[in-house]
Design goal:
This protein is of the alpha/beta class. Helix content is about 30%, strand content about 25%. It binds ligand EPZ.
Length: about 450
């Protein structure tokens, strides 16, 4: 990194004496320094595959069984949403088995307050339009990591013969005459790709989604749809080809493991100078992330057939630079935890966030802990420091909450984190898994 950047970075005096402990309102996480995490831990099912797969059940009429479903709050929110449409749902959080019966689905409108709970709620649009020819939904909520418009969804629904009217709080969509089309996406949006695939499964003829998102979670959706009887193929360049069928049937399906949870746990090993094994980690889907850990000097061992990862941390982690992007580029959902890791690496790292325009809020919180981070638009420059210091910080979204927990495990003293709501939305008791590896972390509710 050029001398110019080195000199440009403001010298921030290191924070020696953490602020006295103040009473924290509401639930919070407390983390104290936890070095040398060690052991083996299992993974939950992938949140972002589970949520879209739950909406895809609207395309069938009958009882489906989903296995390896994470008991995270967003899953409970989606169950509520499906029940609001008339589905029966039974979730055994011990076995992570979710049964959903969509026989008596009657509704096609979702209340704004339910939509506001998470972004994935917008993924009911495609299935509702395919099943009922109608959908009335509030605007989706979710992490405030950017403007997050849904114009790619709407524009392409319109190309497929759907009329969409935007009212102040409501989107009213009606099928005029469904028709298969070649749809070119301006950006490989995960959500838009998933919504359009689901509508196209029951649309006569062949629909092509060009410049489609190729995230592993999209392919987990494609796998269950094919098991339901859908006809879906892929072709170059980045094109998903769907040939409509008359009917789809309920299934019994096991959801993929969560590569983002795996990434968080492996980063915890690297952050604390530990040695952790995750037998279920889908290494074959985590290439860019694992490569960056290796570039830092950490030892990464991958299991047979690309399943299972062991990380043995180096004592002298080197600075690296990352650029997030659509799969298989570096996943934006691991950017925050990677930033935490780079705060104490030797040298200057640069992170370029290309997917969301406002996804560096965790950086501001880490500077309260003594990190040296300079954010200019979509670029964060991190100068590695010797130590971090515990203090009170605020999580602004799911992945930020995880990053602050990781920083807290490295920091001297106690770190308290509010905004626990996000942590619980994204992870199934991740604090317990970290504790099983030796972390000192407590969730106060
Ligand atoms: C999915 O969000 C994930 N959420 C996100 O994970 C993930 O960060 C993201 O994909 C990228 O990998 C779920 O699967 C539920 P996009 P999604 O549509 O579908 C812009 C987490 O932490 N865009 O690929 O919302 C958009 O604003 C979450 O688990 C439009 O402009 O992502 C963004 O800048 C956070 N118009 C970019 O494209 C549109 O119509 C990528 O968004 C749609 C998207």
């Amino acid at each position: 990194m050029s001398q110019a950047v080195e000199n440009a970075l403001p010298i921030i005096p290191s924070i020696k004496d953490p602020s006295p402990k103040k009473k924290i309102d509401g639930p919070y996480l407390s983390v104290t320094q936890s070095l040398g995490l060690e052991g083996e831990v299992g993974l939950a099912g992938a949140k972002n595959a589970t949520l879209v797969i739950m909406t895809s059940l609207i395309l069938t009429a009958g009882r489906s069984v989903l296995r390896n479903v994470p008991a995270s709050d967003d899953v409970f929110h989606m169950i509520q949403l499906l029940q609001g449409l008339g589905a029966q749902a039974v979730f055994n959080t011990e076995t992570n088995v979710l049964e959903v019966d969509t026989t008596d689905l009657s509704g096609y409108s979702v209340a704004p307050e339910l939509m506001k709970m998470m972004r994935a709620s917008v993924l009911v649009m495609g299935p509702l339009l395919a099943r009922f020819g109608k959908a009335e939904i509030g605007f989706p909520g979710g992490d405030v990591i950017g403007a997050r418009p849904i114009d790619y969804h709407i524009k392409n629904f319109q190309k497929m013969g759907v009329d969409v009217h935007e009212q102040p709080d409501l989107l009213v969509a009606r099928v005029r005459r469904l028709q298969c089309r070649n749809l070119l996406l301006e950006y490989p949006s995960v959500g838009a790709t998933e919504n359009l695939i689901m509508l196209a499964t029951l649309t006569g003829g062949t629909t092509k989604i060009i410049n489609a998102a190729l995230e592993p979670e999209v392919f987990d959706l494609i796998a269950i749809l094919k098991q339901m009887g859908a006809r879906i193929d892929t072709e170059m360049p980045a094109t998903i080809v769907i040939t409509g069928v008359e009917k789809l049937h309920p299934v019994d399906y096991t959801i993929m493991y969560d590569r983002m949870e795996a990434g968080a746990l492996l980063t915890a090993a690297a952050m604390t100078g530990g040695y952790v094994h995750i037998p279920q980690a889908p290494a074959h889907l985590m290439g860019m992330f694992l490569m960056k850990l290796q570039e830092m000097g950490h030892t990464v061992l991958i299991g047979k057939d690309g399943v299972g990862v062991k990380v043995k941390a180096t004592k002298n982690p080197r600075a690296v630079s990352i650029k997030t992007g659509p799969y298989p580029a570096f996943p934006t959902d691991l950017q925050a935890s990677m930033m935490a890791l780079l705060t104490t690496a030797q040298g200057v790292s640069v992170i370029k966030e290309t997917v969301f325009e406002n996804r560096f809020m965790h950086g501001r919180e880490m500077t309260k802990m003594g990190a040296q981070i300079d954010v200019q638009h979509d670029v964060a420059t991190i100068r590695g420091v010797e130590e971090l210091y515990g203090t009170h910080v605020i999580a602004s979204d799911i992945r930020a909450s995880c990053a602050l927990v990781l920083a807290g495990m490295k920091a001297i003293g106690e770190t308290t984190i509010s905004g626990v709501y996000h942590w619980k939305r994204g992870y199934e008791h991740l604090e317990e898994k970290l504790r099983s590896l030796g972390a000192s972390i407590t969730l106060y509710e």
